[in-house]
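Quick one before lunch.
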Amino acid sequence: MSGHGEAQPMISEKSGPLKGTALIPGDKSISHRALIFGAMAVGQTSITGLLEGQDVLDTASAMRAFGATVTRHGEGVWTVNGVGVGGFQEPADVIDCGNSGTGVRLIMGTMATTPISATFTGDASLRKRPMGRVTDPLSLFGTQAFGRKGGRLPMTVVGAANPVPVRYALPVASAQVKSAILLAGLNAPGETVVIEKEPTRDHSERMLLGFGAQLHVEKTGEGHVITLTGRPELRPQTVAVPRDPSSAAFPVCAALIVEGSDVLVPGVSQNLTRNGLYITLVEMDADIAFENPREEGGEPVADLRVRFSGNMKGIEVPPERAPSMIDEYPILSIVASFANGKTVMRGVKELRVKESDRIDAMARGLEACGVKIEEDEDTLIVHGMGAGGMPGGATAKTHLDHRIAMSFLIAGMAAKKPVGVDDASPIVTSFPIFEGLMNGLGAKLRHG
Ligand code: S3P
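Model of the shikimate-3-phosphate complex:
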């Protein structure tokens, strides 16, 4: 559980060329789901490549508290002995999801249609985030939720004793909300339907099919209509978790902005619901070769060969691309600072309810580093200063947000003066080997 310990300041100094191969840990979204779906299957699910970041470890603890047997056998190698759909027991204590919005929202959905109660909490960041987006649709199943003002944690969720299936059109593009409803629908009789206007990451749908649920997706004028038949018996699976494209973004973007760099990042997902950043970088004239395309762990992947790109140009990022790169705007805004001209990011207000208000955190930190920013509720505009142009020489506030911390540490590798962060401790939530991996490529990250 992050955010409960002491702040760990970190500094990043201008680095020489980054060289080598960056082996990225497992995908965070898929790791949470492998544990949760494993807990809902009857029998033993085997997982390899599980991300052992704090967010995922908190979900593993939660699955144990609901009655599943979750065992670690070695690095990334885990098994889950599930209790079956509807088989969750009432946890004896509060469920602490640490920093993880995905963890808490998916787990709330999973227990929402079983007649048990559970009280959820998290760190100071998670306790600020809105849960109504999940508990509103869950109430349609008959679930009740009692939280703090504004639908904040701590919150007690009382599962529906006689759940009814629901039909729900998502008001926000959110894979967390979509997944919470599908997980709740598993233990409701009949068909639960979720409609999403813009496609968001589809790992839950893929995994539900893999575990033997009956699910179909239809593309209609309304968007994607996802229909799930309730009360299946889920069959245990062997899940090979692919590498996390959202974590890969950090060494990829570092190589683009640090002069002379040439880095190979193997096995980066090209899943269309996750690869928006990579499309955007190519449009900015980044030098990225997509080598050896293949399938790994059920995901299309490629090896990315990334070279320093001293002549990138600012672009207008199409707002409809936001769901496929929602976690990558912080690091994109760093790359944009080293491009020529302005990069316009519209339709990004969801960034305000992530681990931190990411528009505000990036805007304030970049301004402190000497970059001109424009922003409104739904927009971030970065005025690029060209390769090596960012003055730096500032310390950014990370607000318990791992992606803000990593983004500014990457900026320091190419800025004129070092860039620090007030607290790098949240990085363990998603990318526990970040410091060692980046320093192994040639970065100069140090504590202090
Ligand atoms: C996630 C969905 C996204 C993303 C988060 C992981 C998931 O959140 O930001 O890091 O695993 O479903 P939203 O669904 O709220 O956009």
